Please model this.
Amino acid sequence: MAVGKTYPRVVLARDTRTSGDALKHAVISGLLAAGADCTDAGVAPTPTLAFLGREYDAGVMITASHNPPEYNGIKLWNPDGSAFHQEQQKHIEEMVERDALAAAPWQDFKQAISREDAVIVHSKRILKDFPEKLKTKVVVDCGCGAATVITPLLLREMGCEVLALNSHPTGFFPRVIEPAAENLSDLIAATLNYGAAVGIAHDGDADRMMAVDEKGRFITGDKLLVLLGQALKTREAVTTVDASMAVEEAGFTTRRTKVGDSFVSEELMKGGGEFGGEPSGAWIFPKVSYCPDGIYAAALIASLASTNRLSEMVDAVKSYPIIRGAVPSLGTTLADIEPSLLSTSPLNINRADGLRLGFEDGWMLVRPSGTEPKMRLTVEARTEARARQLYDQGMLVIQNCIATGRNK
Model:
């Protein structure tokens, strides 16, 4: 009702989760009760809903993205494909908390209408950028999520010979739905057995895309960021503070944001950058939408694999040792730790998200977790020994500050 009172014309979609239909009808009821026009686009990926949203005042996506199937939630989108920014979210939340929303007068109630061309509209936009037939083998693991309704069909229309895994939109995910390396053993085996040029994996709502090369090797998000940027001939890229320094060394002018694809999107909207993303698999193409688009990314990596051996391109991208860890913060804040961290004499400092200290041969990032009471540490260096040294140094500082705080 809060959304419907604020945005008169709303389109919504859902991913394949078993709770999706129940939530969808609840959302539709609220929108209609508020007097809004409501269009139901059915089962569709988040980037598809976001692209369709340009014809409406707002989009509502019912999904829990890369979380397990028992979870579900709501994402709100602007017509340009950007997620609701903080002020918009605050406005909706305040309306909900006041709990004083009155239904529209009976004569202003609308009817929900169904729309069945969401996938067609999104596919046509993507195909415009890939007019030539690819004639290459591709394996796609949809995870039984929303990608099942578009990615295999799109790639076949692009000329690919497609082997689709987990392509039934049941809402029961046969693998852990986050497309991380440890969850993609079936994709890796199928890519090798099928002799495919690339293997592609999505999460539940297909806003993420990760890939394996023709040798069955998982391509890290940092390397994928470079490969996609190079394929687009990007000069200026936007990524997060925890992405590899290999991004700069690939020749991009780089702008770094807080961790989270919404922050990358906001930076791109400011006019800086032709492409953006974060190593988790969220890739944003501003010429199409400010929503992470795993479907467009799948088309792009398939196009790249049709003319190049991905393994050779992956090996050409520099790779450095990265070590990640976390400890319970026990009430210690970043402000408590910062003075000791700065005593390490960094060459540069980035405070976009936590504290990122740059050194001649690497960097260290200390930031509070956004989901649990922990302090996270990430380091990267040119050698394994230096990475271990930076990690041990940073962890010692963090643990000493936490111990000092407990003893006060």
